Amino acid sequence: xxxxxxxxxxxxxxxxxxxxxxxxxxxxxxxxxxxxxxxxxxxxxxxxxxxxxxxxxxxxxxxxxxxxxxxxxxxxxxxxxxxxxxxxxxxxxxxxxxxxxxxxxxxxxxxxxxxxxxxxxxxxxxxxxxxxxxxxxxxxxxxxxxxxxxxxxxxxxxxxxxxxxxxxxxxxxxxxxxxxxxxxxxxxxxxxxxxxxxxxxxxxxxxxxxxxxxxxxxxxxxxxxxxxxxxxxxxxxxxxxxxxxxxxxxxxxxxxxxxxxxxxxxxxxxxxxxxxxxxxxxxxxxxxxxxxxxxxxxxxxxxxxxxxxxxxxxxxxxxxxxxxxxxxxxxxxxxxxxxxxxxxxxxxxxxxxxxxxxxxxxxxxxxxxxxxxxxxxxxxxxxx
Length: 384
Ligand SMILES: [Fe+2]
Prior knowledge:
Layout: E1 14-17, H1 25-28, E2 35-38, H2 41-45, H3 48-58, E3 64-66, H4 75-87, E4 92-97, H5 99-114, E5 123-124, E6 134-138, E7 150-155, E8 160-165, E9 173-176, H6 186-205, H7 211-233, H8 238-258, H9 262-274, H10 278-293, H11 298-307, H12 317-334, H13 351-358, H14 362-366, H15 373-383
Parallel strand pairs: 1-9, 2-3, 2-4, 4-6, 5-8, 6-9
Antiparallel strand pairs: 7-8
């Protein structure tokens, strides 16, 4: 099994987990902290933002709330947030919600300390100044943004999503409180959970995986297989939700080191060009890309099948590997996720542009199977 003969493994985030752990928010910020709390309007309405700001109030900390965050965040969300940060005389950040508010909090931090516009920081290694203290609180069990050095910005001009990549934007603290995500609607829980599964599978099988990341990613796959359906089944499955939050964080730790693969290369333009939710796009694409990659990592896909509860004893490695794809298809089906992009609003006429944009992603280079533009077009056609 190939693995990186040299690698770095970096995990600077202090991870705090437990039911009710949001009550530690003030304590985990420095004395005299004046945070900008970045969330979205849905979280305010659901009373989740108040759970966090009540803690800040009780500790006597002043805070400013910023909720101008959309599903696929754009540069103006970041510049508006940086203005709110300055106006509120803030000196810290709290990113509360799914991937979008957490990523926007990271990018506000970049502009607040480094100045200029967020577009200047797209790509790797462009952030040269440390961020203000940043605490991230995921309220879905999918993105892993609470532990990653990535923040994704949608660019309407290029119709793609471009990442800011820097270890300086990895949050200092992540609070995993299952109480905040226990009643996620299935449409959100199912798709964000499948995003986490995609992170784990892409990290486990890609060219940059290492023994350290493989162990974490494979455990995350098993936990997601055991818990995602239960967490989505009703509004009070606290234990399954807890397992999902931890698994999503573990998948984040793994792909923070390795990056991802073709699923994410493809889902970013799908999100940018057709407005499809990130988790939904990944969930639909995942079995198709697994099928494409299967032949390059039979042993690993057989392990994935087994981690997802498939009976692989007595099967050939190839047959066992195929069961991994079937298991993921079945999970999608159980969660009400369609098996093709057409059902999410993607038009076949957009395939050439989608494929061209996907090929620009750094995730293609680390995908376990070499992918040309023609391969990418074929992948999109199959996934329709
Ligand atoms: Fe993702």
